[in-house]
Amino acid sequence: MRMTRRPVPALARTAPVLAATILLWSTPEAWSQEPGPTPYRADCRTEIEGSRATAYCHNPYPVLDRIQLHVECARWWDVDTDSAPADVPPAGDLLLTDRCWKEVRSAWVSHQPVNGAPGASGASGAPAAPGG
Questions:
Q1: What is the pLDDT of residues 15-74, one digit of tens each?
Q2: Of 68, 63, 52, nearest to 123 (Cα)?
């Protein structure tokens, strides 16, 4: 018995090629020869325990990162605080602590490049909720 092949629709034959072409053209960063910006932000985590906030930071990059701990107090009469800026050296660790009189509402770390780290501008940071 002779087997006959069913014709494959043209769309089914060209679909993989079309999908690959779309993926290549939609992500120019993937094939760009220009290097991306050098990251500079230290990895930081914050912990809130009662009236004290602590930031643990590690800088895995070869550039200096200037960080600052910001603490927002829960009580309206309690003054929010910002630590003095501190430099985290390349491959270095840093611990910052600050406190409120009563409970801490949130704490976060802002980053600022030092000596014009490429691709970085201004300070940035995001608040952390208590316990995280």
A1: 776 666 666 566 555 555 666 666 889 999 999 999 999 999 999 998 899 999 999 999
A2: 68
Whole-angstrom distance, CA of residue 10 vs CA of residue 22: 18
Encoded tokens for 60: 């895995």
Place of tokens 């976060």: 108
Output the pTM of the full model.
0.62
User: Rounded to whole angstroms, how far apart are CA atoms 114 and 112?
Assistant: 6
Answer yes or no: are the C-beta atoms of 64 and 87 closer than 8 Å.
Answer: yes
**Residue whose C-alpha is closest to residue 62's, from 37, 39, 44:** 39
- Reading the block at residue 85, the tokens are 């800026």
